[in-house]
Amino acid sequence: MTELSSNGVVAYDVVDGVAWVRFNRPEKRNCMSPTLNRDMMDVLDALEFRQDVGVLVLSGEGTAWSAGMDLKEYFRETEAKGLGATRQAQRESYGWWRRLRWYQKPTIAMVNGWCFGGGYGPLFACDLAFAAEEAQFGLSEINWGILPGGGATKVAVELMPFRKAMYHAMMGENVDGRTAAEWGLVNEAHPLGQLKARVNEVAQILLKKNPVALKATKDAIRRVSDMTYDNAEDYLIRAQEAANSFDNEGRKEGIRQFIDEKTYKPGLGAYDKDRSKA
Ligand code: COA
Fold first, then answer.
1. Which of ligand 1's atoms lies nearest the C-alpha of 70?
2. What molecular function does GO assign, one term (predicted)?
3. Phi and psi dihedrals of 262, rounded to 5?
4. Does the CB atom of residue 117 touch ligand 1 within 6 A?
5. What's the pTM?
6. Domain boundary among 157, 191, 207
C-alpha cells in the first residue's frame, strides 16, 4: 500500500524488505522544494529503523528522477526572504542527503529519468546507483548561470575522472544512463523496462547479508577515501571491533557454517544468517 508524506511530495511502499521511496512531484519533474526536503527527511526518519525495511531504494514518479533544486521555491522565493531562510533551506536539503549518506540500511538510487544539478546530492548519498539507459544526467547549473553547488561539484570529482568532471561541469551537456555508467556516476544502466527488476534483484541479495557488517562496510568505504593507508588500517580495526559489539555471533556463525558444516562457501555467496538466530 502506497503511503504519502505529510505534504504528499514523497511516496513510498514497503515490499519484501525493500522501502521503495519516490520523489512525488512528477508535474514539476521532482525538483526539490523546501517542502519536499522536509518531507523526505520525515520519511527517512520513519523508515530507518523499521524492522521490515532492510534496503531503501530512491526513485522518482513520472519522467524524472529529480530535476535538481526547485529554481522557484528553493532559490528565488527563499532568497527573497533573506539569509536566514536561505541557510535554513540549505540545511534542510543538505541535511537529508547527509542522513542518506550515513543511513543505517543500504541505499540504492534507481534513476528512472532526468537527474540534474542538486540531484547529484542524493545520487551520491545512495550507496549504489542504477540508471535507465534512457535517463539523462546533467550539471545544468552552468546553463542558468551558477556553479554546481550543493555538493554537486564534489560529487562530480568524487565519481568521475578529472577531465570528464571538468567537461561535464563546464559544458552543461547531458549524458544518458549508459554513459553515466561508463563514467562512474552509476553502477549499471538497463533499459527502463528492466530497471526495477534488476534493482530488486540487487536489493534481495543485500537483504541476505549480515546487516551489521553491511553498515560497517558502507561507512568504511566512504570514510577511508580521504585517509592515509595507516589511518585507514587503524580505523578498520576499530570499526570491526565496534561492529562486533553489536553482532559478535554473526561472523562466528559465518565461519562455523563454512569450516564445520561445509554448507556454503564465502567466496561464492553469503552464510545463512537467519539460521544463526535459531
Ligand atoms: N525548478 C523549478 N521548476 C522546475 C524545475 C526546476 N528545477 N524543473 C522543472 N520544473 C517545472 C517547470 O517549470 C514546469 O512547470 P510548469 O508546468 O508550472 O510550467 C514543470 O516543472 C515541467 O517542466 P518542463 O520543463 O515543462 O518539462 P520537460 O519534461 O519538457 O523538461 C527538464 C524537463 C528537466 C529538461 C526541464 O524541466 C529542465 O530543464 N528543468 C531544470 C533542470 C535544472 O537545470 N535543474 C538544476 C537545478 S540546480
1. 1
2. catalytic activity
3. 55, 40
4. yes
5. 0.97
6. 207
The residue from 163, 187, 207 where one domain ends is 207
Ligand 1 centroid to 14 CA: how many Å?
29
Q: Kindly state whether residue 275 falls inside one of the protein's structural domains.
A: no
State residue 248's pLDDT score: 81
pLDDT tens per residue across span 7-32: 999 999 999 999 999 999 999 999 99
For residue 185, give the CATH number of its domain: 3.90.226.10
Domain-located, residue 22: yes
In the chain, how many domains are there?
A: 2
Give pLDDT tens digits for 229-247: 999 999 999 999 999 998 8
Question: β-strands 55-60, 114-116: how paired?
Answer: unpaired
- Model confidence pLDDT, tens digit, residues 70-127: 999 999 999 999 999 999 999 999 999 999 999 999 999 999 999 999 999 999 999 9
Q: Is the CB of 73 under 6 A from ligand 1?
A: no
- Does 81 reside within a domain? yes
Listed as own residue / partner, the contacts of 44-50 with beta carbons closer than 8 Å and 24 or more positions apart are: 44/96, 44/99, 44/100, 44/103, 47/12, 47/14, 47/19, 47/21, 47/105, 48/103, 48/104, 48/105, 49/104, 50/14, 50/19
The whole domain housing 126 covers 3-207
